[in-house]
Amino acid sequence: VAESCPLALMRAHSPAQLPGPHGKARARDFLTAIMHRGAVLAALMVFQSLSSVILQRYAPLVEEHFVITLFLTMLVGAGGNAGNQSTVLVVRELATGEITQADAADVLQREAVSGFFLGVGLACVAFLRVYVKYDFTSSVAIATTMFFIVVLATIIGAALPLALDRLGLDPAHGGPTIQVVMDIGGVLLTCVICAFFLVGSEP
User: 96-142 pLDDT, tens per residue?
Assistant: First the structure.
């Protein structure tokens, strides 16, 4: 049976299959790229693990109000998605020359306004989603958390590629970075805001 086309193409273009010095050079470049990507992913993974410290700090709150656990993924995911949208938009505008560092303030203002309206809309959806099955106070807590997470994610998502570009780094690195930042920030905001609404003060 003949090999599938994608597999054949992968093997044909594998660095190990390239003869001579060019093949060896490409193999070294390939390994270097893998090591670089692995180092970045490892650093982000370790940084992302800080969310476990936050959850441990608020363990009594989470155990008493199980609704937080049920919707934590929804909240954090919305933050990552909203932030990534802003990051992709700004990276594309930087790449095409639509914006420069001189436009940074205007870009951040634009994304802050966008984040406000997106936050209001998603907060309404979150409230209805939670209120279908849970009490009013829990619904307000989750909806309020959604609003602040989305607003913050949209602003940070725009700021990251601008900051990376100013530092001479690839703005595209803002994509995975915003996901990790909002994972940690989303967990922290969820715990703090839900503590305010559900128990009246932080634990």
Answer: 999 888 999 999 999 999 999 999 999 999 999 999 999 999 999 99
Residues 119, 145: Cα–Cα separation, whole Å: 9
What are the DSSP calls for the chain, one per residue?
A: -PPPHHHHHHHHT-GGG--HHHHHHHHHHHHHHHHHHHHHHHHHHHHHTHHHHHHHHTHHHHHH-THHHHHHHHHHHHHHHHHHHHHHHHHHHHHHTS--GGGHHHHHHHHHHHHHHHHHHHHHHHHHHHHTTS-HHHHHHHHHHHHHHHHHHHHHHHHHHHHHHHTTS-GGGHHHHHHHHHHHHHHHHHHHHHHHHHTSS--
Main-chain dihedrals φ then ψ at residue 149, nearest 5 degrees? -65, -45
Interhelix angle 174-198/67-96, nearest 10 degrees? 150
Q: What is the spatial distance between Cα 84 and Cα 78, in angstroms, rounded to a whole number?
A: 10
